[in-house]
UniProtKB/TrEMBL annotation:
GO molecular function, one term: hydrolase activity
InterPro entries given in the database record: YdjM-like
TM ranges: 20-41, 62-79, 99-123, 143-162
Keyword Transmembrane helix: yes
Assigned keywords, A-Z: Hydrolase, Membrane, Transmembrane, Transmembrane helix
This protein's name: Metal-dependent hydrolase
Source species: Halorarum halophilum
Amino acid sequence: MYRTGHVGVSLSLFAPVGYWLVTSGYIALAALVGATFVALAMLPDCDHRLPGVSHRGPTHSLLFAALVGGAFAYLGAQVEPVLDVAVPAGLSMSGFGFLLGFGSVLAHLLADVITPMGVNFLWPHPHRSSLNVVPSKDPTWNVGLFVIGVVSTGWSMGHAFGLL
Ligand SMILES: [Zn+2]
């Protein structure tokens, strides 16, 4: 998909997570998750600028999602002693970081799997998955997904903060 569609899917996935975090009292984490999901919505498409890396190859895989998760887990472990951010019971900052990085990339893959080109979840295994619903460039779907993302996030945050 294009940027609008990707941001829309990322926001749609953030909506329930953000609701849960805010209603559980983790408002700072909810803001962090929302900002990271939007900031990383296009990360796998860095393959357009990487010489020798095929588009929707290595950076559109669960392996890449795990690598980004690993980088965030490392960051989480570094900031844990410095920043006193409350995390849900049973999760360390590094565990939370892993889920955050992994989830951000997964959101991108889910938006691309509906296109005919699909994604290579299990790269380096060559199997490509595609739901073949709509081409990436379809303006209605890109704008529609963006609107769904904004509305679902607005709805969930509005309810979480008791404004709706
Ligand atoms: Zn992509």
